[in-house]
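> forwarded from #structure-qc
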């Protein structure tokens, strides 16, 4: 049986809970059993609000007021005997609705895919092996591990709690973290214990703020405590982005303008002798075609498509508004380890007692030698070195694993290749490899001669900058083993193991340690210190400050973490894009500066500031310094927050990276919070707007580039749609003012809207970035969507499109005044062609001549499709009576191509003369491609 009808898990001993759930407190469930329970119990998910049915989404496409008016007018037309026109108009409206429905459904699917990508993960023991799985696949009986920064993935009965503290405000409303224990609660069967007092349980949705622990899952999904109040979790609505809101407001204004102009058109037409109903139907059709009612929806689709492209470049967007902000980023504050560097640590030096060992080997394979003055030596003969190796191996939560792959050559001879991997923190993995090298490649703790048992862990945090474990030896004596930042460990040490003897840590020796640390750091090594002490009268759960003191310092180890190859060109590209790059690290100043020089970040003297320097600066003073500093070393999370605020006070739009739980405030305060997808905690990811799947700095730059392109593409199709709509309105408006016949009948107006607004506009949404996208300064966050000349381009191009269409109509009508259908067909095709040519002009902020027209294959096919639809209604005999068209001659096409091409080519020549050829060299394209991570 999978679950018991037990709800008071806190009253049971840990062994009873494990037995009741048929699980194993050390090995966890088998994979087969977990899959069986998942199939029976269902996914570990809260029930979501019911999604809007597809038929409702479809019907919503016809709720627009002007569409309803057109429906009514069409029905009246039907009853007046205009059957063909009425049926065709309704068919066009339905096709438009289907296109809108497809766009909206696609956007919804894209956003849902985003949610799934950003879903939390859980560390679980399956068959004795630690695995990372989606939290949704947890089942009752699973053994889950917790550490600071994790969101509890299910309701759990705790089996281990090492200074474990959990913030349960999501359930209890109490923001103060609760200290957890594993003891069963001694209460009567009838007693009801409040959730906040169930100290041996961890509840789904709460947040681990400190310590480590493990527990067995007792409830999942809607069976959890948070599941009982799931309706509270489902009340949040998807917020629209600021751009969407602005466009929605703009759309309402455009509706009013379009309706007023439509009324003028109707009035002028009636004044010049046209029938009222004919003008009314034409006016309403014009309003429906001219009002960009789908603009916010197209923006959503463009954002969603852009976000999908970001995902392919390893950047997951958690908050849609951040896509707009990305293009405004003027400063990127980045962690060093794993983001600017590869996070593939290898210990290359170990020092103690003025003795320096070089360590050979690379990667995670436990193969290498200890070299003293170039000669291989046995580390077991050096007591202090042996102690360093012991601390490196025991004060460690990483695991070193090996996979074997067998291959055969052409002769059938077999070969086995071993691949070593680290499960856990890369720094700890490097120390685990170091210890294994000291034991001739042995990675099993039991075989390394250490019979002690860990009884307590003091987890690493960014304030203490160290981690310690308490172990009990076979003789019953407790020892504290510590590793951490050199300055932090030295500050808590009173003695040192120096040349085999225990002696007081004098100022002279302390200076030697720091001097050696500087030498290592100058070689871009990350330096960690090791210390220990024997504990007399050990008592569990003592305050950390009273445990980590009076330490015996042993020595230091230096590990190399080389910069990522793609970081240097990415930083150069940021520099050319007007984006300042700042390194913020907890590492030693010299190490940070050495790495900064390798990646081209530091370009002058005095650009490095330490945490202690920040402590001596007021906020006002920091604001003056912040523009000149490129590297911050030895900083705490509080320093990060101050740096962000100082940069923002200077008007910068700041992107800030982070991974630890204490980074969340700085990430939340920044304009664009960026979390690490591999090393980041759940707390950090939930505070962030962007999650990097590869923890790579170049991915941030790629995301900024994509953010700029998304915004540019939105401007492109806004320019295209509004200029086209202006042209449609003006051609009718001018014709009525001049007393001309209707240039187009209602069905033609609607067909123009159908073939030109949908596919070409969507194709612009996936347009490639212009070659100089990352060679422009960041745009102002408060910039109006119509700034940088966009408003003028819309009005001027729209005017030219309308004027040229009316000119073609007038010239054709003057030549044959008795053939109105012929003139209307010319006007109809001219308007469509003008818009389809204009769409290529919209791809560049300069002119149509600045880009390859065939570069965007989606746009080319969209234009071809639109052109086929137009030619169909012109040349297919069966459709001519419906759309009031007639065949066109070569002479007609010559007139159409000239008049439809004028708006784009005249504007294009003007653009070339005004701006000159922009910088679009192949070298710049190549430079852009180098920063895109594989």
């Amino acid at each position: 049986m999978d679950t018991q009808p037990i709800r008071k898990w806190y009253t049971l001993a840990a062994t009873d809970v494990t037995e009741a759930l048929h699980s194993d407190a050390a090995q966890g469930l088998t994979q087969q059993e977990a899959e069986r329970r998942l199939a029976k119990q269902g996914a570990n998910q809260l029930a979501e609000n019911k999604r809007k049915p597809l038929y409702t989404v479809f019907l919503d496409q016809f709720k627009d007021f002007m569409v309803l008016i057109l429906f009514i007018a069409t029905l009246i037309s039907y009853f007046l005997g205009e059957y063909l026109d009425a049926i065709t108009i309704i068919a066009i409206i339905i096709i438009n609705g289907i296109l809108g429905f497809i766009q909206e459904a696609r956007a919804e699917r894209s956003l849902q895919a985003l949610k799934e990508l950003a879903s939390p993960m859980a560390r679980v023991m399956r068959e004795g092996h630690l695995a990372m799985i989606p939290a949704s696949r947890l089942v009752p009986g699973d053994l889950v591990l917790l550490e600071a920064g994790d969101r509890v993935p299910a309701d759990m009965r705790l089996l281990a709690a090492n200074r474990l503290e959990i913030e349960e405000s999501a359930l209890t409303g109490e923001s103060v973290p609760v200290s957890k224990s594993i003891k069963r609660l001694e209460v009567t069967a009838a007693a009801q214990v409040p959730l906040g007092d169930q100290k041996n349980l961890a509840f789904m949705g709460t947040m681990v703020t400190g310590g480590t622990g493990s527990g067995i899952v007792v409830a999942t999904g809607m069976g959890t405590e948070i599941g009982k109040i799931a309706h509270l979790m489902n009340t949040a609505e998807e917020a629209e982005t600021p751009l969407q809101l602005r466009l929605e407001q703009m759309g309402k204004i455009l509706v009013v303008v379009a309706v007023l102009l439509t009324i003028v058109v109707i009035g002028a037409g009636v004044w010049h002798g046209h029938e009222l109903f004919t003008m009314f139907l034409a006016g309403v059709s014009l309003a429906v075609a001219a009002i960009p009612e789908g603009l916010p929806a197209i923006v959503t689709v463009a954002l969603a498509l852009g976000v999908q492209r970001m995902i392919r470049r390893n950047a997951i967007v958690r908050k849609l508004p951040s896509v707009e902000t990305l293009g405004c980023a003027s400063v990127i504050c980045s962690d060093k380890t794993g983001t600017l560097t590869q996070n593939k640590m290898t210990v290359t030096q170990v020092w103690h007692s003025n003795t320096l060992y070089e360590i050979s080997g690379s990667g995670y394979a436990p193969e290498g030698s200890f070299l003293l003055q170039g000669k291989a030596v046995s580390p077991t003969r050096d007591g202090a070195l042996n102690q360093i190796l012991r601390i490196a191996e025991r004060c460690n939560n990483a695991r070193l694993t090996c996979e074997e792959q067998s291959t055969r050559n052409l002769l059938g001879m077999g070969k086995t290749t071993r691949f070593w991997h680290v499960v856990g923190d890369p720094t700890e993995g490097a120390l685990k490899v170091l210890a294994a090298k000291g034991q001739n490649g042995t990675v099993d703790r039991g075989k390394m001669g250490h019979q002690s048992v860990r009884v307590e862990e003091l987890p690493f945090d960014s304030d203490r900058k160290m981690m310690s474990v308490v172990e009990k030896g076979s003789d019953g004596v407790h020892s504290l083993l510590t590793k951490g930042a050199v300055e932090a460990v030295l500050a808590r040490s009173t003695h040192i193991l120096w040349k085999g003897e225990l002696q007081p840590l004098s100022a002279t020796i302390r200076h030697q340690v720091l001097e050696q640390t500087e030498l290592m750091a100058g070689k871009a090594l990350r330096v960690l210190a090791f210390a220990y002490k024997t504990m007399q009268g050990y008592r569990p759960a003592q305050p950390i400050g009273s445990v980590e003191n009076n330490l015996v310092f042993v020595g230091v180890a230096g590990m190399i973490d080389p910069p990522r190859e793609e970081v240097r060109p990415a930083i150069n590209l940021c520099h050319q894009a007007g984006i300042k790059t700042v390194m913020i690290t907890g590492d030693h100043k010299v190490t940070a500066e050495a790495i900064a020089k390798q990646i081209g970040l530091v370009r002058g003297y005095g650009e490095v500031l330490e945490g202690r320097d920040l402590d001596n600066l007021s906020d006002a003073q920091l604001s003056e310094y912040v523009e000149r500093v490129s590297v911050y070393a030895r900083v705490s999370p509080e320093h990060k927050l101050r740096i962000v605020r100082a940069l923002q006070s200077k008007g910068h739009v700041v992107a800030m990276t982070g991974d630890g739980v204490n980074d969340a405030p700085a990430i939340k305060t920044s304009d664009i919070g960026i979390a690490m997808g591999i090393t980041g905690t759940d707390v950090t990811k939930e505070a962030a707007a962007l999650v990097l799947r590869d923890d790579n700095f170049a991915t941030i730059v790629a995301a900024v580039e994509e953010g700029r392109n998304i915004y540019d593409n939105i401007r492109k199709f806004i320019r295209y749609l509004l200029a086209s709509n202006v042209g449609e309105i003006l051609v009718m408006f001018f014709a009525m003012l001049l007393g001309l016949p209707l240039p187009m009948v209602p069905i033609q107006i609607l067909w123009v809207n159908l073939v030109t607004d949908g596919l070409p506009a969507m194709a612009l949404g996936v347009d490639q970035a212009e070659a100089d996208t990352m060679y422009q300064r960041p745009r102002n966050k408060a910039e109006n969507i119509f700034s940088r000349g966009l408003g003028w381009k819309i009005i001027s191009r729209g005017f030219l499109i309308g004027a040229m269409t009316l000119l073609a109509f007038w010239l054709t009508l003057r030549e044959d005044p008795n053939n109105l259908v012929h003139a209307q067909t010319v006007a109809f095709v001219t308007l469509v062609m003008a818009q389809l040519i204009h769409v290529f002009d919209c791809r560049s902020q300069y002119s149509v001549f600045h880009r390859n027209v065939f570069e965007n294959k989606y746009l080319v096919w969209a234009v071809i499709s639109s052109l086929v639809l137009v030619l169909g209604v012109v040349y297919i005999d069966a459709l001519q009576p419906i759309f009031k068209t007639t065949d066109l001659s070569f002479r007609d096409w010559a007139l159409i191509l000239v008049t439809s091409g004028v708006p784009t080519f005249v504007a294009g020549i003007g653009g070339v003369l005004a701006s000159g050829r922009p910088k679009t060299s192949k070298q710049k394209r190549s430079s852009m491609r180098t920063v895109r991570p594989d």
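QC bot note: The CA atoms of residues 155 and 203 lie 4 Å apart. The radius of gyration is 35 Å.
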